[in-house]
Amino acid sequence: MRGRKPELKAIDGGLARLPPAPSWLPAEAKAEWRRVVPGLRARKTLTREDLPMLEAYCLAAGTVRRMQATLASEGDTITSAKGEVRRHPAFQTMFQALTESRRLAAELGLTPASRNKAAPTENDDDDLSGLDL
Prior knowledge:
mainly alpha
């Protein structure tokens, strides 16, 4: 149907209950865990094998928040020992964590585009349906 987005479907082995955030995660990562887990639990789209990827996503998202807080408190630039004004090193860390968090969010189905790709529609043609496989 045109204009209608497919619904996500639970997967075999999808967890109906997800554990609490691991104790080793920093506070910002635990906050992200608490934010995304209810939706993942409701969709039952994660298996036990996916939990390390969820941990990595939350760690990366938490790192982005921590680096942004560092930049907010310390400023966008630093002055080197030679007196040169340079971009704060937290920018590079934040950029790398942002890139990783975006990649992992897509893998976990946390972005609108990835949720739409993950869900097959009832009208999907299965060109192997006639085979006895």
